[in-house]
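Hey, quick one: can you model this chain's 3D structure?
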Amino acid sequence: MKALILAAGLGTRLLPYTKYLHKTLFPIAGRPLLDIIIHNLLQAGCKEIIINTHHLHDQIERFIAGHKYAPLMTIRHETEILGTGGAIKNVADFWDDKPFIVINSDILTNIDIGKVYDFHLSHDHPATLVLHDCDMYNNVSVTKDNFIMGFHQHIDTSSSNALTQFAFTGIQVIDSELVSLVPENTFYSSIDLYRKSISNQLGIKAFISKHHFWKDIGTPQAYREAAFEYCSRKAFRQAFHDLPEEPVSCTKLEGDGSDRQWYRLMAGTRSLVLADHNIRAPDKVTEADSFVSIGQHLLAREIPVPKIHFHDTFSGLVFLEDVGDEKFQDRILKTTCKKGVVKNYKAVIDLLIRMSLRGKEGFDPSIAYQTSFYDKELIIEKECGYFVNAFLNAFLGIDVAPSDLSEDFSYLADKALQYAVTGFMHRDFQSRNIMIKKNRFYFIDFQGGRLGPIQYDLASLLIDPYVGLPFSEQALLAEYCAKKISSIRAIDPNEFLSSYRYCILTRNLQILGAFGYLSREKGKKWFEQYIPTAIRTLKHYVNKLDSKELTRLKGAIDLIPDPGAPFSDK
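Sure thing. Here's the predicted structure for all 570 residues.
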């Protein structure tokens, strides 16, 4: 048995992703689709396989060269695309006198190809097309005795002798005699070949497949659906050691400031959380890569993060332990006594110290997304500059140039890093990124992690505008952290707090930049309700500085209107 895998298409429906990766190499649960198709053909008894190529042909050549497949593998490059029929003719020298299989390279299915081949051998007609009932693609007309009569045509459904319409699965078995009907060296469709066969009274049989899995992954949405179906079953097996008997339901959860989507997956009483990062961009390290690598690193260091049960970073799907719905923000806002609030914060700070110190051990900076270190350049560009461009200029309409404040920003960055206690830094360590399940804390959204000062994460936690912790409690808890970490490491608590106070400012500038950008550019208006608290915090801590410090920045901050005023019309 021989087979042709049709892989010469441009993959235009999958743009922009097919600019840099051939569609046959899109992974499904970490396994390239081409590999799945080859193994399906091997299981069916195929002894030789030929692949026609055109776009990104070198990628397929490298892939095949790097694998030792049992069937004899051949690649036939088309300098000009010849179409499905033209591809069959172009490899005429490959066929023998036996029927051969032709299969599309952008389908994912468990249809038994061996059974299809045996069906073809059981009749005397020159071709068998595998069809199924799929509403959106049903356009092949079939008689009651399963002969194909036409393609893409209107049929009369009122007659008792009416034809039935099915969809073509992209799998076909062809007798070698049909190859002679295809013209030489020209673009030609296999559908035209079958129309010619029907007009010549050569019967084309339909194999009607039922109770199977089939997906055309030729569009981003279809690819994501196929990847989800495969990956979700593997994730449940990894998490619970067996496949769910019930169908997996999917409920969208509240999102965050990023473009990721969050879902809760349920199968009976068992649940997982899905973080969907979308299909991979051609970056060296993507957000999904960092999310997975950092999550696995922190879990190995006994940091309380959700366990990642399964992931496919190309499709962007990451399946996590479900740590419930209660956020630290919810816990604090409903805790009425100061003692209870402080107790909860101290528990989180203890875990923060563990994350910083243990998380640094063995941390590979190359797995970080965007930058590996929290350094002066990052502070000036991603926090100070972000504040000016996204908040002052774009959101408030205040005309200030980052260059006007460059000296102050340089000074601020130096002071924030002067006594830095460097460890693993979460980068967004606030109350909405801390979950509580059965009174146990879990840290989430760690994909922005890198090496940096624990003082920054402490500032993120204590000045968090989602909670609005009183300044007196912020000071008490900062001192608690300084004393606690000084009992573990040889540091000066006063120097620790000195850098902490400047980290408050860098974090606060980043918060306002993010709130301005997300509300104005991303349309996430719910962030606006927290801007007044962030402004009050910024003005409070700026006013505590020495009168000669950051005078230009203070002047810019003085231009920010009363935080009690509404921002929705700005």
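One thing worth noting: Residues 326-558 form a domain with the Aminoglycoside 3'-phosphotransferase; Chain: A, domain 2 fold (CATH 3.90.1200.10).
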